[in-house]
Each structure stands twice: as structure tokens, then as C-alpha cells.
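2024-03-11 09:14:02 INFO receiving multi-entity request
2024-03-11 09:14:02 INFO entity count = two
2024-03-11 09:14:03 INFO echoing inputs for audit
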Amino acid sequence: MSLVNFTSREITCKIVYYGPGRSGKTTNLHYIYERVPETRRGRMVSLATQTDRTLFFDFLPIDLGQISGFSTRFQLYTVPGQVYYNATRRLVLQGADGVVFVGDSQARQLDENIESLQNLQSNLLEHGVDVRTMPLVMQYNKQDLPRELILTAAELDDALNFRSVPSFSADALHGKGVFETLKSISELVLKKLAAGSPAA
Amino acid sequence: MTTTLNPRFTFDTFVVGAANRLAVTAGRTVAENPGSAYNPLFIYSGSGLGKTHVLMGIGHAAKSLAPQLNIEYLTLDEYVEAFHAAIAAGQGDAFRRRFQNVGVLLVDDVQFLTNRKEMQAELLRLTEALQQAGHQIVLASDRPPAEIADLDERLISRFSGGLVVDMGIPDYETRVAILRRKAEGRGIAFQPGVLETVAKIEFPNVRELMGALNRIVAFQAVHDSPVNEEAVRKVLGVASSGVGSPSVASPRVASPSVASPDEFSQFLTDVTATVGKAVEAWRAHVGEAVMRWQGQGYRTGRLEQLLDKDKPAAVDDEIAAYMRDVERLKALEAEVATLDPRAAGDKVFHDPDRMDEAEAAAARVREGAAPPPAPSGAFPLESFRAGPSNEVALSAARDVIAKPGKKYNPLVIVGKSGLGKTHLLNAIGLELSKKKGSIVACLSTQAFVDELIAAIDGNRVDWWRARYRRCTALVLDDIQLLAGKERTQEELFNLFNQFLDAERQLVFSAPAHPNTLEGLEERIVSRLEGGLVAELGEPDKDVRRSALEGLLRQQRVMTDTALLDYLADRPVDSVRSLTAVVQRVIEAAAAQDAPVTAALARDVLEGSAAARRSAGARTSGFVVSSAGGVRSREKMVWDWPTAADRVIEDMR
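2024-03-11 09:21:47 INFO inference complete, emitting structure
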């Protein structure tokens, strides 16, 4: 997928929110959706089950308008967290320019986080992408829960962030850390674009 | 087409009070965060309460915060006109692109969308496009969206979807503050209590408040001593008890704004900076230039060729050369637009690769331009008779001649028939036209109306408008003749605004104060009242004597003091009546083959019936001047000194 198109003067970034089930990926997108002016956002497509679990994926297109003469669009996706939807996750991950890993800060969810991170790595490999070259940021969600239930950001960094990518504490339900995360992944994606040779 | 922002209309020069605080705060917010705070922002208020000032204030503030921002201010009529010109020239798409590329669009007087379905659709499209692109649109009207007759529901909901604020009539304290600031700005000092007295009058708008201040300034200028409170009441025609209590109008919000998108705005700013760094700088530079000029309807082939190259040598030089060509094209187009708007739509003015053709096209238009009617040379300022009865008007006229557009704009000369309004107007016009580069249009309102009708008939309204728009001053005699001429009033209203914005002088005459004239729209009246309304009084003895000397000299009559004294003491209500008196005496003298003396004049004007009959003036009621032209009967009423005599005359 061509990130920057000089002929049509377009920049399109595909960012995927990845993570275990119920970690708050859709909540991130909802928060962003509510903050984006109506005129700049497309319809948020959300395919959920009756119990509000993401069945297929969420998709939120955002039009950032003209930036440096380029028509700039962000496409935000979430993947379904449950283990048995791996085919969908792999599909959504195809052509991603950056990944936000939304981890669940609850101590009892640590294994699910690790499992999901490994799943991300293997799915990227399926697409021939080395996770080390993919722009990635970590978001430790639900940091608003009682301290005795969760791990601190530092503890989660030790457990999950062995590549020392940017990481953020978050409370996606109330918006804390949501835009910081989005900003960070956007910068990484766009910097990678600057380093690579742009397609004409 | 787009009006330049008036440098005086900034937030710094706007006096904020309870009645307009919300509008100004919203305006400032919009200027600081164009496209994200309240979009669209819709401001409404009655005429003369500062809508245009706030609109332009937003423009100035936004420009100072982001100099690269493309800001346009225009009235709805200008927009409509530009649209029609673009459609006529087959440039509709370029026109739309151009406006969609504006960062902050300020549209004034949108109430004129009434009954313009086509423009409503166009504006709806534009508003949607601007909002989608994150560009700001600010609209001003004299009424809220829902009250604009026949306005499309979709437009109403879109206008109301941002923030709708009104501006009320300033309260007493604000009025005092406005007057003080204006007086300070003009370097004029008043006695304590004077401005407060003016402020106590509840003027319906700020423009009329300024008109009152102008009257006080003019009054003080011609009298040696500073005006006091009593004089103020007299000049403004209010009784001591006639001043009302200050009223406070409270602003209200008609519709809540959307949820604050601040987090998103911040994100957008950050991403913009990152993209700027990420995209190869020179390509981004060229890309921006292409977008910018394409958006304004210019052909950009030359720049697009640069993008195809790997790394051109001198990108900046190429862009600079292109921009120079565009600037030249803009200048040519602007010049042509003032001469013939239809010709300005020519595609050649939008193609920097066809500079020679553009120059040639502009030269052709220059040759065919015709100037508007000029002031008559028969009314020089030197021959205007000065005296206490007209010194305020004459002094104002001199100020206008010295500082056209700056001091009293508009200047409205009021007075009864025959007091010299036309003379003074033409004299001002003549003096103004002596200035280098000036084009002064000076004509009667009737001629103005007739010209417009002929232009509409000949489908040349654009050309007609252009003739007046390029004038440096507009002088219209007998403005009361606009009554009932709706289309002419609309055209004049637009001209009015353009002239005021560009500080070009407007001078009018009327038989009475504009606010007493019937059939004039309120927006015209308030603008007329907003300058200086100066009265010409009935000629005093100085004026009569001075006029007599001139008249007699003109008729080659030897004058003696006795004759002058006698004639100057005659009760006349206008210089024109005086002319008729002199004419009668001269004709009587000619009939009797006698010299014009005081005795003969007395004989003719009050003497025996025989003398009068021999003068041949009473039988018709018309006096034929030796200089040609017919004086009307109404001017001759004084000829019958007693009612009984008049009855006998009627019986014949």
C-alpha cells in the first residue's frame, strides 16, 4: 500500500489497534470518534456481538485535510481480541503502517497480553513483516482501576515492552492517554515514511 | 472582487460592552483557532452595530496569528457578482476551488440570500466544502438565520450548527466609552459632561452615535469656544428631559456549539508538523504552491512539471518567478475588473504561461473604458456665498476636500430648495477632482437611477457598477429621489460600503434630515446619518449681500450701496428667490430703459401696480431669465406682498 502518493498528493496511514479481548481497543476509537469534528470523520463501522464484543473489526476513517499540500487521511482499525478470530486479525493487519498495542493493565490479564503480543508478532511475520521494523507503541489501559488490581506502567514495560517502544498509561474510557498514543504512533509512521523512499 | 480588510476595523479599536461581548469573544476564539472552534460562526445584529467591524477584526486577528493564512472578506453581493462573472466566463469550477481554498472566509450581509435559491445552493456547497476542509467560515446578517425569508432549511441548520450570536444596542457606559475613544482618536477635547450628554441619547445604532459626534465636532470647529452640554442638546435637537435612560441589551446564544474538539485540534497541529518534516521539503513546497494557485483558479502546468523531476536545481526561483507572473495577472485582472467585469473573467488572466496575451487583453479593455458623470464646472467653490447660515456646511465641505474619506464620510448636505445644495455638492466634486488620480462621479440621483435602468435594460449592470466602483468620490444630489427605487438603493448600499471601507468620499444632498425622508431603507438611512449631516440655513444678510454682488456683477449692473442694502434686506428664503428678485428688477429697468437703482428696485418690488404691470412679471407667475431657463411659480410667491392683492390676481 502506498503511504504517500505524490501524483495524487495523498497521504494515507493505516493504524491498527491490537491487543487482547476487552483491553479497550474499541473504547479508544470511540473516544477519538467523539472528539473528531463531524465534518472530518467518516462513519465509524463497528461490527459487534450482542454483548458488545468486536466480532469482525472497527474502522474509523479520519480526514485531516490538506497538510503540506497533501490530502491526509488516517484509517484506524481495531482487531477482535478473542483468540479464535485470528483469521480476521491477520486480515486487518495486512497493509498496516503502524500498530498500537492496547494492553490490559489488570494483573490477572498479563498472560493474555503476552499471548496477544506474540500473536501480533506471528501474524506480522505471516505478512512477511518483521515486528522490529513496524512502527509500534504500547498503551497500558485501565490504569484508573484500584492499584491492587493492576500492574504499574513500569511493571508492564518490564513484562511486555522489551523493544523499548514508546508506552503510555491510559484510561481510554475517560480519554486519558488516547490522543497521546495516537499522536505517538502517527509520528513514528510518518518518520518511517521520511526515512524510506517515497513511492511516486 | 474581495474587499481589503479595513485597517481601522480591528479588535483593538472595537469597544466591547455587555451587548457585544459574546460576539467578540467568539470572534477572537475563531481567529485563534480557525476551522475548529465555532464553524460556522454566525453574527447578527441591527444595522450599524459593528458586524462588519467584528468580521474584519476576526480577519486581522487570524492574519496576525497565522500570516500564511488565506483570508477573504466580502459581502454576499460581491460573492454573487463574482459567481455570475465566473459562470459567464466558464470558470465556475475554478471559482469554487478558489473559495474552497480560503482559510478564513468572512461573508457580510448574508440576509440578501432571500429569494436567491441558486446562490443558496452555492453557499451551501461552499459551507460544506469549507467545513470538510477544516476551513473557517464566518457570516454576518441583520437577522438570525431562521428569519431570513425563503432560506433553505439545510442552510438554516448548517448556519445554526456552529454558533449563532447577536450583538445588541450598546448600553450607556459602552456608548460613553465609544465616544471617548473616537474623540481621543481624532485628537479632539470636549468639556466634561459633553460626551456623557450625547451618550444619554438612545441612538438605535453606533453609526448614528458617530453621526451625532460628528455634528458636535463640526459645531465646535466653527465656533471658537468649546461646546457645553446645553449646546450639545441644541445641536442634537433634544430637550433636557428628552434623553432616555440607558438601555441594556443582553446577548443570547441561539444554539449551543459542538463539543470542544481541542484534543483533535492539538493532534492535527502535531501531525501537520510531523508531515511537514516527513515529506521531502521541496516537493511539499511545490505541492503547496500548486494547491494554492490551482485553488485560486490559475493554471499550474509549469509547477507540476517540477514535480516530475528528481530534484530540480532552483525550485524556489521557479516558484518565485511563477508567483511574480501570477501577481501581475492579478493586477491586470483587478484593473480590467474595474473597467469591465465581464472581460475580467477571461481565462487568459489565469494562465501564467500566456502573459503576453493577458497584457494585450488588458490594453484592449483600457481603451474602451468610459468615466462616470463629472461635477459641473459652473459651480466653483469660490462663488459659493458664505455666511453664518451655512458656515457649518461650508466648513465641513472644506474638511472633506482637505481630507477626503477620512473626516466626515458620508457628508450629507440638507436644506430646502434653492439654498445652494447643488452648488456646494458640485463645488466639493470639482475640488476633489483636482487631486491627482481622482475620479469623481457627480450627478443627480435621478440621473443615477436612470443610468441603472438603462444598464439593466442593456444587460450592462456589471459595467455600470464598475464605472462607479473605480471612482475616488461619489457625489449624489437629491438623495430623496431614491425613495421606492429598491434596486438602486441596493446598488447604492453596496457602493456605500465599498466607499466607506476604502475611505473614499461620499457626498449627498437632501431636502431634510435623512431619517425623516420616506421610502429610504433603514440601512441607507443609518449610513447617511453615520457621517455628518450638515444643514444649509436660509440665507442670512451676509450671504444675500454677497450673492447680490455676484449676481449684479454677472448682469453687468453698476452697483451702489443703497441698491445692495435695499435688495439685501428683502425677505427671501433662498438664493434662488434672490436671483428671481434681481432678475425682475433688471428686466423692469430694461423695459423702462432706466438704470438699476435702489429707487427703481423699490418701485418694482413694492411700488405702484403700474410699475409692476410694466415689468410684465405678475401676469404669468413665470419669470424668464435672460440667462435662459424658467423659474418655477412656487419660487415667486413672495411677489404678492399682500393676500388681497393675490386674490385680485387670481380673479383675472
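2024-03-11 09:21:48 INFO post-check: Chain A has one domain: 4-179.
2024-03-11 09:21:48 INFO post-check: Helices of chain A lie at 25-35, 86-93, 110-126, 153-160, 178-195.
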